[in-house]
TrEMBL record:
GO terms for biological process: maltodextrin transmembrane transport; maltose transport. It comes from uncultured Rubrobacteraceae bacterium. PANTHER family: MALTOSE-BINDING PERIPLASMIC PROTEIN, MALTOSE_MALTODEXTRIN-BINDING PERIPLASMIC PROTEIN. Belongs to the bacterial solute-binding protein 1 family. One of its GO terms (molecular function) is carbohydrate transmembrane transporter activity. Keywords: Signal, Sugar transport, Transport. Pfam families: SBP_bac_1. SUPFAM superfamilies: Periplasmic binding protein-like II (SSF53850). GO terms for cellular component: ATP-binding cassette (ABC) transporter complex, substrate-binding subunit-containing. InterPro entries: Maltose/Cyclodextrin-bd (IPR006060), SBP (IPR006059). This is ABC transporter, substrate-binding protein (Cluster 1, maltose/g3p/polyamine/iron).
């Protein structure tokens, strides 16, 4: 949410800021917030676990204030699933944050740019020398102007329990055999829940990236290709009808929250968990009884294997920021090499900029993910995580429509046609992504 996020519903175990809203200043007792310092207001989503929330507060608040004593950082953390509802209204209110984290892409940050709620950052990139991957920067560029600073690279993969699955399936047929074996044992093959709707978008991204490949998706996203084609219908049918009828998901999948589905995997009740690399840190903390591996979704009908990858959230400066300079200084601090290394080690996220990885202290699972993705982050091998590239109206049709396909009230062909209609409308309105 992600997630995208974004856009991602995580386990919350209580603690600071995890049951509602956290407004965090520096750790010092008795300090009056602000005082003679300039206040920088930062709005972001809560982290996945209590441990991560503490770590990110240490990095984003305490360490920033230590290095920038002229500022007090007020960090407000809310449920990630509420961000898309909260951000637009807050930016229009008299309580606007100075800087905030939000999903990039036309359907998220692009909407804010179109309505004049965020400041362009073209000059700031040049002045500060921010070394964001050029392809990643394009994900936060709307109508030729860059507005956001991408801060995380993601890949959508399948995590699996190595005790239950000694080998990774290489084809759809092999995955089916594994799934049938687990059904006989009473194990859920795939831990998937779609109550929040966005998880279906991730499965759709897996399916069309696999069946169409990078070039096929590029033809649709940046050319004259269409969504109502046999490959897209096949992807929708496989993930949202076939797998449901085959019993590969938990029952009543549309009523299952993402965190509940994840817990089925953590507890060993499910063999596989299709989701993004953003969940690695939580998996490392939550799973203690078995070793976790990962693989890209295997070849479907002899197609290539193109796991979706792209940019998750980014940082934006509010148009009505009361301290825009402080907001810029905060972003600049987060992009420093030493800060980026801390974020990698403490939060296990892959930055959208080159970072020296020598000597990093990270879990083995994350090291494998880091090596898989960050060495060639723009390789043509990867597909796309579509919700961060698609316009808002397309995402709305994607999320509500897949829920209907899952419950059997809409056919895969009808959903493909609806997606094409939404895309054509957005294209006429000039709201689709531009190619990097």
């Amino acid at each position: 949410m992600p997630r995208a996020v974004s856009r991602k519903d995580f386990l919350r175990f209580g603690g600071v800021g995890l049951t509602g809203v956290a407004l965090l200043g520096a750790a010092g007792c008795g300090r009056i917030l602000g005082g003679n310092r300039d206040v920088v207001k930062f709005l972001t989503g809560t982290e996945e676990t209590t441990i991560q929330e503490r770590a990110v507060t240490e990095i984003q608040v305490n360490r920033f204030e230590e290095q920038h004593p002229q500022y007090t950082l007020e960090r407000e953390a809310i449920d990630p699933d509420e961000m898309s509802k909260v951000i637009p209204s807050r930016l229009r209110s008299g309580e606007s944050p100075d800087v905030f984290s939000f999903d990039t892409g036309p359907g998220f940050g692009g909407v804010l740019a179109d309505t004049g709620l965020v400041d362009p950052l073209e000059k700031t990139y040049k002045e500060k020398g921010w070394d964001i991957y050029e392809w990643a920067k394009q994900r936060a560029t709307y109508n030729g102007t860059v507005y956001g600073v991408p801060d995380q690279v993601e890949e959508i993969i399948v995590f699996y329990n190595k005790d239950l699955m000694p080998e990774e399936p290489q084809t759809l047929q092999q995955l089916r055999r594994v799934a049938e074996e687990h059904k006989l044992r009473g194990t859920i093959p795939l831990a998937f829940g779609n109550r929040e709707q966005y998880p279906a978008g991730h499965l759709f991204s897996i399916g069309v990236s696999n069946l169409l490949g990078r070039q096929g998706l590029d033809d649709i996203l940046y050319g004259n290709g269409r969504w109502d084609v046999p490959e897209v219908v096949r992807a929708i049918d496989l993930f949202f009808r076939d797998f449901v009828e085959s019993g590969y998901y938990p029952r009543n999948v549309n009523a299952v929250p993402f965190d509940e589905a994840s817990t089925l995997f953590y507890s060993g009740e499910a063999a596989m968990l299709p989701t993004g690399t953003w969940l690695v840190s939580e998996i490392v903390q939550a799973v203690q009884d078995f070793e976790v591996g990962f693989f890209p979704f295997p070849s479907i009908d002899g197609s290539g294997i193109s796991p979706p990858a792209g940019v998750g959230a980014g940082l934006f400066v509010a148009k009505e920021a009361s301290n825009p300079q402080g907001a810029i200084e905060f972003i600049d601090y987060l992009l420093q090499g030493s800060t980026a290394r801390l974020i990698i080690e403490k939060l296990n996220v892959i930055p959208a900029q080159p970072v020296d990885s020598k000597g990093l202290d990270v879990p083995e699972l994350f090291r494998e993910v880091l090596e898989d993705l960050s060495t060639t982050p723009e390789a043509k091998f990867f597909g796309y995580n579509l919700d961060v590239l698609a316009p808002q109206n397309f995402n709305e049709v994607m999320f509500t429509g897949f829920q209907e396909v899952l419950d059997g009230t809409r056919s895969p062909a009808e959903q493909a046609a609806a997606l094409q209609d939404a895309w054509a409308t957005a294209k006429k309105q000039g709201k689709i992504a531009t190619q990097d």
